[in-house]
Amino acid sequence: MADETCGVAQAAAVMGDWWNLLVLREVARGHVRFDALVAELGVSRKVLTERLTHLVAHGIVAKVPYQERPPRYEYRLTPRGQSFLPVLVSMQDWADRWLLGDGSLSATAAVDSPEAVRTRALPGGTVPADLTLVDSGGAPRDPVSPDAPVTVLFTYPATGRPNPLPAGWDDIPGTIGCTLENRLFRDRWPRFAAAGAAVHGVSTQRPEEQAAFAEAEGVPFPLMSDVDLRLAAALRLPTARIGQQPRLKRAVLVVTRDRTVRHAIFPVTDIPAAVEEALTIATAAAHAL
C-alpha cells in the first residue's frame, strides 16, 4: 500500500531502469530514430525495442511515423517526457558534483573535469531542430537564429538585476561576472552583426527578469530563458543548483545555421578573452559558409 501511494516508488517503476533514463537522455539530445539510438547507446536492438515500447506505453515518448514504406518511426518526447528533463538534469548535476567532483558547490569547473570534457566535446554535434526557448518577451524562440549564418550562444548563471541574488552568491566560484559578460557582448554586438553572427544569451531566469535586465542595460540581442532546462538537457550543459534553483554554468558556443556546434568554450575563466575568442571564431565560421 505504501508503494501505491508513494510518488518516488511510482516514478522509479516507470523511469528507474538504467536504459529508460539513457534513452530519454538521447531523445532529448535529438537522437530520435531507432538506428541513431542504437549507435549512441551501444544497446542491443532487442533491449532498445523493449525500452521504447515501455516508454511509449507510459506516455513518456510518442511514436511518430516519418516514412510509410517501409514504415519507420521517430520517438519524440511528450509533455510528460519533457517534464522529466529537469529531473534528468538534476541527476547530471548531482553526479557532476558528488560522484565526478569533490562535492563543492561551483558555477564553473576545472579544465580537466568530466563536465568540461563533455562540454568541449560538443563541436560536431547539433542543437535539436524542434528545440525552442522563451525569449524576454514571452514568445517561443529558436536558440539558433534562422536569419544569421552563425549564432553565438552564451550561457550564464544569473544577473543580479532586477531581483537580488541569493545569499553567499559571490562566494561561489564562477558566479561573478554575468552583468559584465552581457555588457561585453552588448558593446561588441555591432562587430558580431557585421560579421554575420547573431548573439543569444541564455540563463534559467524568468523571461520577465531577463526583460527588465535587458531594458536597464540596453541589451540589443535576445535573452532567452531555459527555465525548463530543455537546452541544458539537449546539450548536457553543466549546471549547478544555487539558491534552490538550477543555474547554467558559464559557457560560450558557436553554432552554424545548420545547427552544428562549431566551437565550445568551457570553463570560461577570462570573460573578456572568451568574448573575443567567440567573435574571432564566429567571424571565421560565417566567412567560411
From TrEMBL:
<protein>
    <recommendedName>
        <fullName>HTH hxlR-type domain-containing protein</fullName>
    </recommendedName>
</protein>
<dbReference type="Pfam" id="PF01638">
    <property type="entry name" value="HxlR"/>
</dbReference>
<dbReference type="InterPro" id="IPR036388">
    <property type="entry name" value="WH-like_DNA-bd_sf"/>
</dbReference>
<feature type="domain" description="HTH hxlR-type">
    <location>
        <begin position="6"/>
        <end position="103"/>
    </location>
</feature>
<dbReference type="GO" id="GO:0003677">
    <property type="term" value="F:DNA binding"/>
</dbReference>
<dbReference type="Pfam" id="PF00578">
    <property type="entry name" value="AhpC-TSA"/>
</dbReference>
<dbReference type="InterPro" id="IPR000866">
    <property type="entry name" value="AhpC/TSA"/>
</dbReference>
<dbReference type="InterPro" id="IPR002577">
    <property type="entry name" value="HTH_HxlR"/>
</dbReference>
<dbReference type="InterPro" id="IPR036390">
    <property type="entry name" value="WH_DNA-bd_sf"/>
</dbReference>
<dbReference type="GO" id="GO:0016491">
    <property type="term" value="F:oxidoreductase activity"/>
</dbReference>
<dbReference type="InterPro" id="IPR036249">
    <property type="entry name" value="Thioredoxin-like_sf"/>
</dbReference>
<keyword id="KW-0804">Transcription</keyword>
<dbReference type="GO" id="GO:0016209">
    <property type="term" value="F:antioxidant activity"/>
</dbReference>
<keyword id="KW-0238">DNA-binding</keyword>
<keyword id="KW-0805">Transcription regulation</keyword>
